[in-house]
Model the fold of this input.
Amino acid sequence: KSALRRIGVLASGETYTTQEGADGLAVLNALIDEWRTHRLTVLTQARSTYTLTASTASYTVGVGGAFNQQRPLWWDAVTYIQDDGSEMPLRVIYLADEWARKDKTLTATVPTAVYVNTNYSLTTLTFYPIPTTAVSVALYYPASHLTSIASLTTAVSVPPGGWNALRYNLALELSEEYGKAPTPLLLKRAAESLANFKRVNVNRDVLHTDLPGTGGYAYDIDTDTWI
Done:
């Protein structure tokens, strides 16, 4: 209702027709689906664990895959879980030319790297070297908090800033559906509210270098030392 009021389709106190409600819900779900491709609208980091089969290198990830779960669009980390529960990060390889140079027959007790082949609808993870034991791994990836809304009466919760971002951007999407020219204020609020929603998901990264130093690879400019 709020989105339709903002483009002049509804007046205060009016409600939408059954068809208008169905059309609006379809547009809303399409908007949410698009937002799932925006890294900064995905606020949850998920962790999944799996046990690899000895002497098996490749596993598909996605609904119906060997790792049967949501197919991640991004990968934050893949780790090897040691016997004491601590985790060692694996090098994640995305570039095909780097992967092409690897000896695919090399084996080891545990892998040190994983190649991510982002096919649709199943991503393939290939662990390197091929593990000769049944080791456990953990997958870290962003998972969308927003999912398709089943009906107009479905209760949903959104993170701070999410309501205005959804309301104003839905109004912007619906303005085209109804042939309404969006006002400058609507354009401004849609952009601002989405930017505010994304801003809370910006993480500060620590800058690292490949040059080895005493004790580590991060350089502290305040103390002039490697940490």
Q: What stands out?
A: The longest helix spans residues 18-35. Helices lie at 2-6, 18-35, 96-100, 162-177, 184-199. The longest strand covers residues 44-51.
